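call fold target=Phage terminase large subunit N-terminal domain-containing protein
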Amino acid sequence: MIEDKILHLGLTEGDGFKIFKELIQTPKDGVIIFQGMSDQTADSIKSLEGYKRAWCEESQSLSDRSLTLLRPTIRANDSEIWFSWNPRRDVDPVDKMFRSGITPTGAAVVQANWSDNPWFPDVLEQERLDCLANEPDQYDHIWEGGYVTVNKGAYFAKDLLAAQTEGRISKVAADPLMSYKAVWDIGGTGQKSDATSIWIAQFIGKEIRVVDYYEDQGQPLAVQVNWLRENGYQNALQILPHDGKTNDRVHDVSYESELQAAGFTVEVIANQGTGAAMLRVQAARRLFPQIW
């Protein structure tokens, strides 16, 4: 992109610009280099000392480690680090640094969007309108700078968009007089296991109010039990999928037996056989209009 801009402006070697495969020489002995951050080490990053500008494009992909290596290196007087990105998640390191409410001293944060572009072409305007009409669940992230809230192709993408549009995604207060149900999706233990998720819900009239949520990956059951107790859900009915009766590959005990031994009331949903997965998805879609 920088090379294209130099050529577009008609700048040549006579103006002090010389383009090579891996770098661009600029007037007054300046140089522009291009480096990926994923393969940097503490030693290799030191080679950037003395540079006064660093532009990190697609910064939503930067890791904590990359930021930790880069920030102390670009530190000459009047030096600047520029970050440009399309927000992805509020937990991405660059978002936590600049959009969490406390920004680094001297930082300037600018939200620039398609609507700020006076040269926004008609072809992109039509593309934007097509996205709004055909992929409304993706529109806010792609065009308005919103975080990814629904992964494309997710089972409940349209249902979550409807819940957001109708104001059903908000802070829901728990009713202290009503009981809790803890609905589990078991991922197992070990480094290669899937995530374990727990939804805490109350059934009040025709409404299903999801008041809390927990997720981890590869943690032993004791961690999840502690979370339930620390948050006051020790009396919640623990609803497990059919594999709740199956012994864990690492600890050789079932979630059902261990939760019962810990004093919880447990209900395991029986295996419904072939095709049951999509039947559960369809059942959840029917219930979604009642979920807050």
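return ok
The beta strands are 18-19, 23-26, 30-33, 53-57, 80-84, 181-185, 195-204, 207-217, 237-240, 266-268. The longest helix spans residues 122-134.
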